[in-house]
Amino acid sequence: MEYRFQFKPYRLPLRAPLRTAHGSWTEREGIMVRLEDEAGRVGIGEIAPIPWFGTETLAEAEEICRKLGDKVTSAALDAVPARFGCVRFALAAAREIQCHLIGDIKKNHLPVAALLPAGREALAALPAKLEAGFLAFKWKVGVGDVDTELGLLDELLAELPTYVKLRLDANGAWERRQAAKWLARCAERPVEFVEQPVRPDDEAALLGLAADYPVTLALDESVTGLAAAQRWQGLGWRGVYVIKPALAGPLGEIAAWAAATRADIVLSSAIETAVGRAAILRTALTQPLTSRAIGFGVDGIFGDRRWDGPVLGAVLDKGWIDAVHPEAIWNALN
Ligand code: MG
Questions:
Q1: What is the pTM of this model?
Q2: pLDDT tens string 51-74
Q3: What spacing in Å lies between the alpha carbon of 132 and ligand 1's midpoint?
Q4: Which residues contact 129 (CB under 8 A, 6 or more apart)?
Q5: How far is the CA of 196 from the centre of ligand 1 (A)?
Q6: Is 8 a catalytic residue?
Q7: Is 106 among the catalytic positions?
Q8: Which domains does the chain have, with CATH numbers?
Q9: From the CA of 195, how far away is ligand 1's center (Å)?
């Protein structure tokens, strides 16, 4: 099979700067790819790297696109090396849409986890999110000191109805002893899981904490690519894997891995536009990937519906996916 191949780098401002451990993020840069087959069928994919998460850089991704040229074969697409997970995610998504390989919607809906701000602000943000019907929340921890945040945890739990789930994300901020204090406290509380309690390179601490405490732990920064997740599986990891499909590789490979190993997956956003997001969320409803709330609860990242897509509220359903038109987004980018 031969395709006509085009790509468009994009640079889109974020509605509000994102604070990360690697500084403030004010705009999202990526590349849209477009494949058209001989019958004129078109698929659009999105390359959205995060190099400090261990992915390829934007320049490397662009280099690959340039080398592919304006006519590509299936074999050339398949030959993109495994370490270019973001490029492979985008090309596979464009090819699947183009080939209509995508399956029927099997799940009617999935809950969306709302992101609560760090610190005491979480308490202020909570009522509106509960009112909006959210059934799962993620609270960023490891930002303030341990005892203050543990006090806030109890205040937060007191405000949550019992049917609501709370997950915590430390982004690797704790030392092992701090993590142990948190996990001992969480053991007696209804916490869905604790994400990345310590740095990804402290593998002994991650495995030790998982063995020592009954609370479910999740790996995020530790598992950027599918290969890393598989390696952790080999180490005996029994907890959750937070997978950002836009960074991890082709959705079909992730779905096959999940089906074969029954890995416990949480799908998460890598700050992509509605193009990448629609590919991921369609797979979430068509494949038995996950039943946990999806980590796409930051709506309006760009503050522009052209790139954010329709409002994504407390629940994802097919209607959201049907309302995204990747080709229109491609055309709207200059
Ligand atoms: Mg995380």
A1: 0.93
A2: 988 899 999 999 999 999 999 999
A3: 23
A4: 114, 116, 137
A5: 7
A6: no
A7: no
A8: 2-98 (3.30.390.10), 109-324 (3.20.20.120)
A9: 6
